[in-house]
Amino acid sequence: MDYQKTVLIVEDEKNIVDILRFNLQREGYQTCEAYDGTDGLEKARARRPDLILLDVMLPQMNGFDVCRALRQEGDNVPVIILTAREEETDKVLGLEIGADDYITKPFSMRELIARVGANIRRTAMAAPAASASDTAMPVAGDLSINTDSHQVFRGGKVIDLTQREYELLTFLASHPNKVFSRVDLMEQVWNYGYVGDDVRTVDVTVRRLREKIENDPATPLYILTRRGAGYYFAVP
């Protein structure tokens, strides 16, 4: 690492915080901790961490509300939701409100460290704002991508994407008309060497992306589905 990355742990169970702190620091990360949602949100704003491990069930303010507040403020810090619940709706809700990933308790420390590293590695360094006319590359229709500023434009206006949505779009757009399975995308975009139920993450991210870049998300023009095979970026 060029500099020590900081992970904010927002979790109300002290024994879990202690275990996470020990293992993350052993991997070379700096950590800060919060034991309730309100303090977690304040520390996220003040410390500007490189990643947040965010429990769902928290005193004062739950994890979903913390994540939602950060995204509404334009903060795209990678967020990994920690949940003890197995319900699919919890996982989907976390992704819908802008979390980058989720992991269900009890989790293996090796898996958690791998996900932290994958999410931090794929986070772009802050870049200065740019206009669509600077170095934006047209990709299809009125869509263009500025890879210097990590911004996407539609009709010359910037679209507010999360880091993961940006990465998924640029990956698919850089391989026009090539179909990628969910497993392919988990490996190539999410940078995970293992999959499983996580492929649901791809579907939710595609849906969110379509809502932002398509005029009619129900009948998309850019990111299309090849039934039984996967997703592809359509270029005439």
The gist of it:
It is built from 8 helices and 11 strands. With 236 residues, the protein is of the alpha/beta class. The longest helix has 15 residues, at 199-213.
Which secondary structure elements does this structure contain, and how are they paired or packed?
Elements: E1 6-10, H1 14-26, E2 30-34, H2 37-47, E3 51-55, H3 63-72, E4 79-83, H4 88-96, E5 101-104, H5 109-121, E6 137-140, E7 143-146, E8 151-154, E9 157-159, H6 163-173, H7 182-188, H8 199-213, E10 223-226, E11 230-233
Parallel strand pairs: 1-2, 1-3, 3-4, 4-5
Antiparallel strand pairs: 6-7, 7-8, 8-9, 10-11
Helix pairs in contact: 2-3, 4-8, 6-8, 7-8
Structure description:
The chain has 236 residues and is an alpha/beta fold. It has 8 helices and 11 strands. α1 (14-26) links the parallel β1 and β2. α6 (163-173) packs across α8 (199-213). The model is unreliable at 124-133 (pLDDT under 50).
Features:
4-stranded antiparallel beta sheet; 8 helices
Radius of gyration: 18 Å
**Widest sheet: strand order?**
2-1-3-4-5
Number of helices: 8
What fraction of the residues are assigned to beta strands by DSSP?
15-25%
Low-confidence stretches: 124-133
Distance between the termini: 41 Å
Query: How would the global form be characterised?
Result: globular
How would you sum up the major sheet? 5 strands, parallel
Number of strand segments = 11
- Class computed from helices, strands and strand pairing: alpha/beta
Order of helices and strands: EHEHEHEHEHEEEEHHHEE
